[in-house]
């Protein structure tokens, strides 16, 4: 017995839209998770980049106290490296996770570090 190949998925009329606020909330939640920063401290904005979305984030970042680094220079690595290294690595992860969660296509993520939250491995001060 020969069976017919499955037909193409049926196209449904209408469209879906994700609001800017929903995208912004998603981006802030992802950035907070990736960089371990309170979501309330993150500001996100969106820009058109040749038809794709470009995400711009402004946020503080957690750093070890200078006393801790003086006593143990490896504390910088415990935090994930320098501020620049962490921000650079975070861009790709944030881009991928926001695209996967929202279904939107992003061209890039820009991160502007606006301050430092001193932490000794526990809660930021």
Write structural notes for this entry.
The chain has 125 residues and is α+β, with helices and mostly antiparallel strands. Helix content is 37%, strand content 27%. Strands 1-2-3 form a three-stranded mixed beta sheet. Strand 1 (43-49) and strand 2 form a beta hairpin. The chain starts with 19 loop residues before the first helix and ends in a 6-residue tail after the last strand. The model has no long low-confidence stretch (mean pLDDT 87).
Structure summary:
With 125 residues, the protein is an alpha+beta fold. The protein contains 4 helices and 3 strands.
What is the element layout, followed by pairings?
Layout: H1 20-35, E1 43-49, E2 52-64, H2 66-71, H3 75-78, H4 83-102, E3 106-119
Parallel strand pairs: 2-3
Antiparallel strand pairs: 1-2
What are the main properties of this structure?
single chain, alpha+beta, 3-stranded mixed sheet, 3 strands
Mean pLDDT, to the nearest integer, reads 87
Number of helices: 4
Strand order of the largest sheet: 1-2-3
Order of helices and strands: HEEHHHE
The whole-angstrom Rg is: 20 Å
Fraction of residues in β-strands: 25-35%
Helicity, in percent? 25-40%
- What spatial form do the alpha-carbon principal axes imply? elongated
Biggest β-sheet strands, sense, barrel: 3 strands, mixed
Total beta strands: 3
The N- and C-terminal alpha carbons lie at a distance of: 71 Å
Summing up helix and strand content along with how strands pair, one would put the structural category as alpha+beta
């Amino acid at each position: 017995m020969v069976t017919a190949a499955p037909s193409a998925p049926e196209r449904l009329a209408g469209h879906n839209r994700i609001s800017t606020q929903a995208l912004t909330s998603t981006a802030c939640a992802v950035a907070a998770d990736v960089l371990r920063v309170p979501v309330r401290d993150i500001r996100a904005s969106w820009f058109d980049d040749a038809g794709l979305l470009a995400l711009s984030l402004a946020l503080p970042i957690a750093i070890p106290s200078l006393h801790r680094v003086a006593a143990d220079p490896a504390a910088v690595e415990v935090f994930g490296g320098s501020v620049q290294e962490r921000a650079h690595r975070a861009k790709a992860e944030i881009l991928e996770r926001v695209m996967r969660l929202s279904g939107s296509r992003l061209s890039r993520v820009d991160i502007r570090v606006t301050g430092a939250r001193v932490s000794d491995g526990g809660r930021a001060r």
